[in-house]
Amino acid sequence: MLKSLAVRVLIALVLGLLVGAALQVWAPKGVQDGMSIVEALGSLWLNALRMTIVPLVFTLLVLGIASVADAAATGKLAARAIVLFGVFLAVFATYSVLMTQGWLALWPIDEAAGAALRASAHAPDAAAAKASTVADFLKGLAPANALKAAVEDAILPLVVFGVFFGFGASRLSEELKRPLLTVFRGVAETMLNVVRWVLWAAPVGVFALSLSVGLRTGVASAATLLQYIVIVSTITASITVIMFVVVAVSRAAKLGEFLKASGPVLAVAFSTQSSLASLPAMLERTRDNLGVPDRITGLVLPLAVAVFRATSPVANLAAALFVAHLYGVEPTVAQIAGAILVSFAVAVGSVGLPGQISFFASVAPICIALGAPIDLLPILLAVEVVPDIFRTLGNVTADMGVTTILAKGEREVPEPVAEVSPG
């Protein structure tokens, strides 16, 4: 079990909070002051993660958009699937914003615990970005200088530029497109290697950061972390239930049959926390139990696993809005719209990444779009092991549901029956 990075990071978080809380109560003042070196190590580790955000997000976005454009060009069924993916993502993203805001209105973060947690992260209480009006939002969609946008962490204009760049690259001839995308793939893999190295030290970095939290908050911050887990997990888990309802209402399949077919797939998803590892079970159950033709399952399900992550905008927006609420940031409608657009982009770009890398690469840009600091994301990364289970369950249910909906009305083309001439 200790071979799992998620488990090691979670243990480091708990130890850091406990040691910090113990030092707060029993250690002399001089020892507490000496802990600044440990806190500096945590900040160093966080900055190492920060430096990968812009190049990683941009290169993965270009590669993801190019792959989506290529897939859509392969046929009508693929194009219909991608359109349906987009519709579901838009609905789910809007749902996540409304549900998260509702949750936080009913269960606001405790002010004392929130203030202590903010102070421990050495991040400002106010929004890092000034409030944005609709006019500012529209003017800022296209960056006048893409390099300047990258330097200033202006994520939304950078994402817009990346989307156009990706679609533009998809229109090149194979002779030009292949080497260009190879360069981007090389940069992305390089940055992923850097992130993996940084995450290798995640237990140390999270221990240092959580020690700082424990020194300032004691164990009070544990309640805020538990609140985060409950809010993000329940919102993400509800996507699975919603997909069951959508399949039943659309009459793509009988609810009982869909539940029976998806049961074993959900078991695989729960144990592996991987949509890709669940693909063989999805293919088998969708074909054998739901009667979806091979020509549809063979195209739509692998495409869904490759470019469609139904719960990505849901969980990522919920996490980012929680952080914004924690820091007292009240994003405008324009900022929320921008965050939704960013959540779409990173959902496409982060497909197939390991959970820890995907979490930071996906949530950090959304926080920046909302004007919220990202200093607490490593602490939230440590408890992401729980919401991540519901991410995967929602993803595989949505993949099977969309495939079943696309297959509605489709039938296998009957093979011609050879005529037998009379003896």
List keywords for this structure.
423 residues; mainly alpha; 0% strand; 77% helix; Proton glutamate symport protein
Strand and helix layout:
Layout: H1 5-26, H2 29-34, H3 36-50, H4 53-72, H5 76-106, H6 111-120, H7 134-139, H8 146-151, H9 155-170, H10 174-200, H11 202-217, H12 221-249, H13 255-272, H14 275-288, H15 294-307, H16 311-326, H17 333-349, H18 355-370, H19 377-382, H20 385-406
* Mean of pLDDT: 82
Shape: globular
The total count of helices amounts to 20
Known CATH architecture: Orthogonal Bundle
Number of strands: 0
* Secondary structure category: mainly alpha
Overall number of structural domains: 1
What Rg is obtained from the alpha carbons, in whole angstroms? 23 Å
CATH topology call: Proton glutamate symport protein
What can you tell me about this protein's structure?
There is one protein chain. The protein is mainly α. It has one domain (5-406): Proton glutamate symport protein, CATH 1.10.3860. It is 77% helix and 0% strand. It has helices spanning 5-26, 29-34, 36-50, 53-72, 76-106, 111-120, 134-139, 146-151, 155-170, 174-200, 202-217, 221-249, 255-272, 275-288, 294-307, 311-326, 333-349, 355-370, 377-382, 385-406.
